[in-house]
Write a structure and sequence with these properties.
Layout (H helix, E strand, L loop, with lengths): L2 E6 L7 H14 L3 E6 L7 H4 L11 H7 L8 E2 L8 E5 L5 H10 L3 H15 L3 E5 L6 H9 L2 E6 L3 H16 L4 E9 L5 H12 L3 E6 L2 H6 L5 H4 L4 H14 L2
Parallel strand pairs: 1-5, 1-6, 2-4, 2-5, 6-7, 7-8
Antiparallel strand pairs: 3-4
The structure holds adenosine-5'-triphosphate (ATP) and magnesium ion.
Length: about 250
Protein backbone atom coordinates (compact mmCIF):
# COMPACT_ATOMS: atom_id res chain seq x y z
CA UNK A 1 0.00 0.00 0.00
CA UNK A 2 1.24 3.49 -0.71
CA UNK A 3 1.61 6.16 1.93
CA UNK A 4 0.27 9.70 1.50
CA UNK A 5 2.20 12.31 3.46
CA UNK A 6 0.99 15.92 3.65
CA UNK A 7 3.56 18.52 4.66
CA UNK A 8 1.93 21.55 6.20
CA UNK A 9 2.43 24.61 8.38
CA UNK A 10 0.05 27.32 9.43
CA UNK A 11 2.61 30.04 8.86
CA UNK A 12 4.66 30.52 5.70
CA UNK A 13 8.37 29.97 5.17
CA UNK A 14 8.81 27.28 7.81
CA UNK A 15 10.60 24.92 5.39
CA UNK A 16 7.77 22.75 4.01
CA UNK A 17 8.96 22.69 0.40
CA UNK A 18 12.56 21.94 1.35
CA UNK A 19 11.43 19.22 3.74
CA UNK A 20 9.22 17.68 1.04
CA UNK A 21 11.88 17.78 -1.68
CA UNK A 22 14.62 16.40 0.58
CA UNK A 23 12.50 13.56 1.89
CA UNK A 24 11.53 12.71 -1.70
CA UNK A 25 15.19 12.56 -2.76
CA UNK A 26 16.24 10.50 0.26
CA UNK A 27 13.40 8.01 -0.15
CA UNK A 28 14.22 7.64 -3.87
CA UNK A 29 17.83 6.95 -2.87
CA UNK A 30 16.41 4.06 -0.80
CA UNK A 31 14.71 2.66 -3.90
CA UNK A 32 11.21 4.10 -3.36
CA UNK A 33 8.99 5.46 -6.10
CA UNK A 34 7.95 8.87 -4.83
CA UNK A 35 5.40 11.36 -6.14
CA UNK A 36 5.43 15.03 -5.14
CA UNK A 37 2.42 17.28 -5.76
CA UNK A 38 2.63 21.04 -5.41
CA UNK A 39 -0.80 22.01 -4.09
CA UNK A 40 0.47 25.52 -3.37
CA UNK A 41 -1.55 26.81 -6.31
CA UNK A 42 -1.42 30.42 -5.03
CA UNK A 43 2.37 30.59 -4.77
CA UNK A 44 4.03 27.50 -6.28
CA UNK A 45 7.76 27.01 -5.73
CA UNK A 46 8.94 23.44 -5.10
CA UNK A 47 9.74 22.96 -8.83
CA UNK A 48 12.73 25.29 -8.32
CA UNK A 49 14.28 22.88 -5.81
CA UNK A 50 14.11 20.14 -8.45
CA UNK A 51 15.90 22.38 -10.96
CA UNK A 52 12.85 23.41 -13.00
CA UNK A 53 12.12 27.05 -13.76
CA UNK A 54 8.46 28.14 -13.88
CA UNK A 55 8.57 28.74 -17.63
CA UNK A 56 9.82 25.18 -18.16
CA UNK A 57 6.60 23.74 -16.73
CA UNK A 58 4.73 22.40 -19.74
CA UNK A 59 1.81 20.71 -18.02
CA UNK A 60 0.73 21.38 -14.43
CA UNK A 61 -1.73 20.40 -11.72
CA UNK A 62 -3.88 23.26 -13.03
CA UNK A 63 -4.27 21.42 -16.37
CA UNK A 64 -5.71 18.47 -14.47
CA UNK A 65 -7.97 20.55 -12.20
CA UNK A 66 -9.30 23.04 -14.75
CA UNK A 67 -8.60 21.66 -18.21
CA UNK A 68 -9.48 17.97 -17.85
CA UNK A 69 -6.05 16.51 -18.64
CA UNK A 70 -5.11 13.24 -16.91
CA UNK A 71 -2.94 14.06 -13.89
CA UNK A 72 -0.15 11.70 -14.95
CA UNK A 73 0.48 13.92 -18.00
CA UNK A 74 1.61 16.68 -15.64
CA UNK A 75 4.11 14.48 -13.78
CA UNK A 76 7.75 15.27 -14.62
CA UNK A 77 10.46 12.82 -13.65
CA UNK A 78 13.01 14.61 -11.46
CA UNK A 79 14.86 11.60 -10.05
CA UNK A 80 18.22 12.63 -8.59
CA UNK A 81 21.27 11.11 -10.31
CA UNK A 82 22.21 7.71 -8.91
CA UNK A 83 18.91 7.07 -7.08
CA UNK A 84 17.63 3.52 -7.47
CA UNK A 85 14.03 4.69 -7.00
CA UNK A 86 12.30 7.56 -8.75
CA UNK A 87 10.79 10.99 -8.07
CA UNK A 88 7.92 12.41 -10.10
CA UNK A 89 6.84 16.02 -9.60
CA UNK A 90 3.41 17.42 -10.39
CA UNK A 91 4.11 21.16 -10.39
CA UNK A 92 1.55 23.93 -10.11
CA UNK A 93 1.38 26.56 -12.83
CA UNK A 94 3.34 29.79 -12.41
CA UNK A 95 1.31 31.57 -15.11
CA UNK A 96 -0.39 34.57 -13.46
CA UNK A 97 -3.64 33.94 -15.39
CA UNK A 98 -3.79 30.34 -14.16
CA UNK A 99 -3.14 31.39 -10.56
CA UNK A 100 -5.83 34.07 -10.52
CA UNK A 101 -8.25 31.71 -12.24
CA UNK A 102 -7.66 29.17 -9.49
CA UNK A 103 -8.41 31.77 -6.82
CA UNK A 104 -11.45 33.10 -8.65
CA UNK A 105 -13.15 29.91 -9.79
CA UNK A 106 -12.27 27.15 -7.35
CA UNK A 107 -12.71 23.55 -8.53
CA UNK A 108 -14.48 20.32 -7.80
CA UNK A 109 -12.92 19.21 -4.51
CA UNK A 110 -13.32 15.53 -5.29
CA UNK A 111 -11.18 16.01 -8.37
CA UNK A 112 -8.07 16.80 -6.34
CA UNK A 113 -8.31 13.74 -4.11
CA UNK A 114 -9.14 11.57 -7.14
CA UNK A 115 -6.03 13.02 -8.80
CA UNK A 116 -3.84 11.88 -5.89
CA UNK A 117 -5.22 8.35 -6.24
CA UNK A 118 -4.83 8.32 -10.04
CA UNK A 119 -1.23 9.42 -9.69
CA UNK A 120 -0.43 6.68 -7.17
CA UNK A 121 -1.98 4.05 -9.45
CA UNK A 122 -0.59 5.23 -12.78
CA UNK A 123 2.98 5.73 -11.51
CA UNK A 124 2.91 2.82 -9.06
CA UNK A 125 4.05 5.07 -6.22
CA UNK A 126 5.21 3.89 -2.81
CA UNK A 127 4.88 7.36 -1.32
CA UNK A 128 3.00 10.49 -2.33
CA UNK A 129 4.24 13.71 -0.73
CA UNK A 130 1.92 16.71 -0.82
CA UNK A 131 3.48 20.15 -0.43
CA UNK A 132 0.91 22.70 0.73
CA UNK A 133 0.23 26.41 0.89
CA UNK A 134 0.58 27.74 4.45
CA UNK A 135 -2.58 28.32 6.46
CA UNK A 136 -5.90 26.73 5.80
CA UNK A 137 -7.55 26.61 2.40
CA UNK A 138 -9.51 24.05 0.44
CA UNK A 139 -6.48 22.22 -1.04
CA UNK A 140 -4.92 21.99 2.42
CA UNK A 141 -8.02 20.57 4.06
CA UNK A 142 -8.42 17.99 1.28
CA UNK A 143 -4.74 17.12 1.55
CA UNK A 144 -5.08 16.66 5.31
CA UNK A 145 -8.19 14.50 5.02
CA UNK A 146 -6.57 12.08 2.57
CA UNK A 147 -3.21 11.82 4.39
CA UNK A 148 -1.92 8.78 6.27
CA UNK A 149 0.60 11.10 7.88
CA UNK A 150 0.65 14.86 8.35
CA UNK A 151 4.02 16.48 8.99
CA UNK A 152 3.59 19.91 10.56
CA UNK A 153 6.72 22.02 10.12
CA UNK A 154 7.33 24.83 12.61
CA UNK A 155 10.08 27.20 13.70
CA UNK A 156 10.74 27.87 17.36
CA UNK A 157 9.03 31.26 17.06
CA UNK A 158 6.08 32.58 19.06
CA UNK A 159 3.92 33.12 15.95
CA UNK A 160 4.68 29.59 14.80
CA UNK A 161 3.84 28.14 18.21
CA UNK A 162 0.33 29.56 18.00
CA UNK A 163 -0.08 28.66 14.30
CA UNK A 164 1.11 25.10 14.92
CA UNK A 165 -1.52 24.75 17.64
CA UNK A 166 -4.20 25.65 15.08
CA UNK A 167 -2.81 23.27 12.42
CA UNK A 168 -2.67 20.40 14.92
CA UNK A 169 -6.20 21.08 16.12
CA UNK A 170 -7.52 20.97 12.55
CA UNK A 171 -5.58 17.79 11.70
CA UNK A 172 -6.84 16.07 14.86
CA UNK A 173 -10.39 17.26 14.10
CA UNK A 174 -10.09 15.56 10.71
CA UNK A 175 -8.92 12.32 12.38
CA UNK A 176 -5.58 12.22 10.57
CA UNK A 177 -4.16 8.79 11.51
CA UNK A 178 -0.56 9.93 12.08
CA UNK A 179 0.67 13.36 13.06
CA UNK A 180 4.34 14.34 13.45
CA UNK A 181 6.03 17.66 14.11
CA UNK A 182 9.25 18.89 12.54
CA UNK A 183 11.01 21.80 14.23
CA UNK A 184 13.09 23.69 11.67
CA UNK A 185 15.52 26.62 11.77
CA UNK A 186 16.39 26.03 15.40
CA UNK A 187 19.06 28.56 16.48
CA UNK A 188 22.40 26.90 17.24
CA UNK A 189 22.25 28.19 20.81
CA UNK A 190 19.15 26.08 21.63
CA UNK A 191 19.67 22.52 22.84
CA UNK A 192 17.81 20.37 20.27
CA UNK A 193 16.90 17.66 22.79
CA UNK A 194 15.45 20.17 25.27
CA UNK A 195 13.55 21.90 22.46
CA UNK A 196 12.18 18.58 21.22
CA UNK A 197 10.86 17.67 24.66
CA UNK A 198 9.35 21.09 25.19
CA UNK A 199 7.51 21.05 21.84
CA UNK A 200 6.32 17.47 22.40
CA UNK A 201 4.92 18.47 25.76
CA UNK A 202 3.15 21.58 24.46
CA UNK A 203 1.26 19.73 21.71
CA UNK A 204 1.26 16.19 23.10
CA UNK A 205 2.64 15.18 19.70
CA UNK A 206 5.83 13.39 18.61
CA UNK A 207 8.60 15.55 17.18
CA UNK A 208 10.22 13.57 14.35
CA UNK A 209 13.23 15.87 13.97
CA UNK A 210 14.78 19.16 15.05
CA UNK A 211 16.70 20.80 12.20
CA UNK A 212 19.25 23.50 13.01
CA UNK A 213 19.16 26.83 11.25
CA UNK A 214 21.84 26.43 8.60
CA UNK A 215 23.87 29.04 6.74
CA UNK A 216 24.68 26.32 4.17
CA UNK A 217 20.96 26.05 3.46
CA UNK A 218 20.63 29.83 3.17
CA UNK A 219 23.62 29.84 0.86
CA UNK A 220 22.17 27.11 -1.34
CA UNK A 221 19.13 29.42 -1.56
CA UNK A 222 16.78 26.84 -3.11
CA UNK A 223 19.42 26.15 -5.77
CA UNK A 224 18.96 22.40 -5.38
CA UNK A 225 18.16 19.58 -3.01
CA UNK A 226 20.13 20.14 0.18
CA UNK A 227 20.64 16.44 1.03
CA UNK A 228 22.24 15.83 -2.36
CA UNK A 229 24.54 18.83 -2.07
CA UNK A 230 25.41 18.14 1.59
CA UNK A 231 25.01 14.38 2.17
CA UNK A 232 26.80 14.35 5.56
CA UNK A 233 25.41 17.56 7.00
CA UNK A 234 23.55 17.68 10.37
CA UNK A 235 20.47 19.03 8.52
CA UNK A 236 20.59 16.06 6.12
CA UNK A 237 20.84 13.67 9.10
CA UNK A 238 17.55 15.11 10.39
CA UNK A 239 15.89 14.79 6.96
CA UNK A 240 17.06 11.14 7.00
CA UNK A 241 15.35 10.66 10.35
CA UNK A 242 12.06 11.93 8.93
CA UNK A 243 12.40 9.74 5.82
CA UNK A 244 13.11 6.73 8.06
CA UNK A 245 10.09 7.52 10.21
CA UNK A 246 7.84 7.62 7.12
CA UNK A 247 9.28 4.33 5.85
CA UNK A 248 8.52 2.75 9.23
CA UNK A 249 4.79 3.60 9.15
N1 LIG B 1 17.15 24.68 8.36
C1 LIG B 1 17.19 25.78 7.61
N2 LIG B 1 18.16 26.71 7.81
C2 LIG B 1 18.23 27.82 7.07
N3 LIG B 1 17.37 28.12 6.08
C3 LIG B 1 16.39 27.26 5.83
C4 LIG B 1 16.24 26.04 6.57
N4 LIG B 1 15.15 25.39 6.08
C5 LIG B 1 14.66 26.15 5.09
N5 LIG B 1 15.38 27.28 4.93
C6 LIG B 1 15.15 28.39 3.97
O1 LIG B 1 13.92 29.00 4.31
C7 LIG B 1 13.27 29.46 3.15
C8 LIG B 1 11.87 28.90 3.09
O2 LIG B 1 11.95 27.50 2.89
P1 LIG B 1 10.80 26.72 2.14
O3 LIG B 1 10.53 27.33 0.82
O4 LIG B 1 11.15 25.28 2.17
O5 LIG B 1 9.59 27.02 3.14
P2 LIG B 1 8.03 26.84 2.90
O6 LIG B 1 7.44 26.52 4.21
O7 LIG B 1 7.80 25.90 1.79
O8 LIG B 1 7.61 28.31 2.44
P3 LIG B 1 6.15 28.74 1.88
O9 LIG B 1 5.26 28.78 3.08
O10 LIG B 1 6.41 30.10 1.29
O11 LIG B 1 5.73 27.70 0.90
C9 LIG B 1 14.15 29.07 1.96
O12 LIG B 1 14.94 30.16 1.62
C10 LIG B 1 15.01 27.94 2.53
O13 LIG B 1 16.26 27.85 1.89
MG1 LIG C 1 6.60 26.07 0.05
Amino acid sequence: MSTIVTVHSFRGGTGKSNTTANIAALMAAQGKRVGVVDTDIQSPGIHILFGLAGDQIQVSLNDYLWHGRPIKESAVEVTPAGASGAVFLVPASTKPGEITRALREGYDAKRLTQGFRDLIDSLDLDVLLIDTHPGLNEETLLSLIIAHLVLVVMRPDKQDYEGTGIAIKVARGLNVPNLLLVVNKSPQILDPQALKHRVQEIYDCEVAAVLPHSDDMMNLASGGIFAINFPDHPVTNQYQKIAGRIASL
